[in-house]
Description:
mainly beta, Jelly Rolls, 5-stranded antiparallel beta sheet
Amino acid sequence: MRYSVTSQHFTTEAQAREEIAAAGFYAMLIDVPAERNPLHFHDFDTKFYILKGGLQLTDGETGTSHDVRPGDRVEASAGWVHREAHDGFTAVFGFSVDPATLTMPINKPVDGPLVPADSANASH
């Protein structure tokens, strides 16, 4: 699995935390400030559950975009190249590693473009 988006997967923060714990991940509630970032990847697996706001995720290999909203779950494998655009959102994040051990920057840069410029803005 590189990534998956499951729409309307959960209804409460408690439910999200239970799923994160059952997977053996570390849960954190995070208010993410507005951002439009370049292609990047993370060196850990993650799953996150949108509570408020939303974001657009774009796959770095295919250019496929997903509008992610409250109630949606995103799961992503380490190394998945993507970008995000949003006006801020709140989510419960599940990290496959202890957040205290994360290396900086969390958004690891990608050398060179993977997505043709015209497909990066397509919404699917």
